[in-house]
Amino acid sequence: MERKKRSIKKGLLLVLIGLILMVAQACSTKSNSSNEEASKTEGTKQGGTLNVVRLSDATKLDPHFITDIPSANVVYQKVYQGLVVPDKDFKIQPLLAKEWTVVNDTTWEFKLRDDVTFHDGAPFNAEAVKATFDRLLDPNTGSPQREKFSMITEVKVVDEYTVQLSLAYPYAPLLSILASQEGSILSPKALAENPENLAQHPVGTGPFVFEAWKSGQEISLKKNENYWGKKPNIDGVVFKVVPEDATRLAMIETGEAHINDQVPVTEIERIEASETMGLYRTEGLAVEYVGFNTKKKPFDDVKVRKAISHAIEREAIIKGVYNNVGTLANVAMSPKVYGHSKEVKPYNYDLNEAKKLLKEAGYENGLELTLLTSDRKERINMAEVIQSQLKGIGVNVKIQVMEYGAYIEMANNGEHDLFIGGWGNATGDGDYNQYNLFHSASQGPAGNHFYYSNPEVDQKIEAARKETDEETRLKLYEEVMQMEIDEAVYIPIRNYEHMAAHSKNVSGFWLNAANYLMIDDVVIK
């Protein structure tokens, strides 16, 4: 990373470098033979359209309103780019910004590229960066991403290709959040002329240009012939919605499709035995959990939440539902994320304690509740296992399976009781987990689907995001995660392992630790 003209206290500089290096170390991905095969680019064959088959369609394509991975995956590093980007080891690298300077604790300066144009012909410059962040931070925009950047108080245009971000307080993981999809830079022309249209028609600076979206069917992108960087080898990419797991795999096997990045764990042996398919696997930053809507009865009572927590046998879910893909989670933060602590322990499996707590809460004669899940096969299987396990304490569970978009909408509106959820950390930093999942300001679309609010937790999360001493920051995260477990806000289930089945005639793709499909170097034989 090139960082010139730096003026900053030596101690803070070392802390910031240390934090970035820790994120990088924590997020390096293991590769296996299949991974290496998938990421090899053989020769320089040009052309062809990459067909990616997926379970769910996107919900919207405006980065300021995207709150789910299936939507972000279509545009991140394809249509849209940010000032900086994480590499394969999650180390932050220059992208639209050539270099940056930490002027002081609360001022960051970015020198921008001068050879970039948006897909609609608008020039990329400091004004474009300002227009993007001004829109994101404007309360009237109503962006669920606003809180993620709430430390930015002003975006200053220094000259045409220099921009400064003024912060309300020192914020150690600033680069990591700028490198996430939320940090995408949008066309100022599109923002000025028709910002609402960006939900269906994204306009960025990336290697691919948006072409068409047939809702519920497919989204197509074509190669950006005027791209400022290395142009893609392929002519375009189509993201096809294919809800049936078996059909998606059959399409990969026959060569009708190239990549399926949502692979059922039950199909691993079949893929590995196939002559035409390969399997890509990498550890992820995401965590899966069972969450409580703490605002709704009976889950406004911590004893009920603790009872349910004691009654779910998590190990059985990892083995029986997930075929040991991924690892048992202890908190809602992956061990690969900066801020994780193995010292925080979830509730043990104890049916007697669960029954005792239910009795104390006044539900001696049982309880009826609804468990919401999206329509992913493993999640439905998990719901059925939980339904069976909770019968053991007299709790009858009705399972509500919804298509992904409807599931997100219901959770965003707080209409659920109990739910199976996941959080795909996009930055590798604990702030992205804690602020978005548990801070009172993040209730609803921003990520806090527990509708949890605790002023002391809020205060500790805010203190952690401002803290520049590494040891103190890690201690704060450990304390706050312990409080969330003590209050039984959720039940941690699984640390993700991301998988993709691919046709053996495609190479050069990879999944990053946040589960984004990276296709810059894809080659189709």
TrEMBL record:
Location of the Solute-binding protein family domain: 91-443
Domain of life: Bacteria
Keywords, ordered alphabetically: Signal, Transport
Keyword Zinc-finger carried by entry: no
Keyword hit for Transit peptide: no
PROSITE patterns assigned to the protein according to its UniProt record, in alphabetical order: PROKAR_LIPOPROTEIN
Signal peptide annotation: 1-26
Entry-linked Pfam families: SBP_bac_5
Family, as annotated: Belongs to the bacterial solute-binding protein 5 family.
The protein's name in its UniProt record: Glutathione ABC transporter substrate-binding protein
Species of the source: Neobacillus driksii
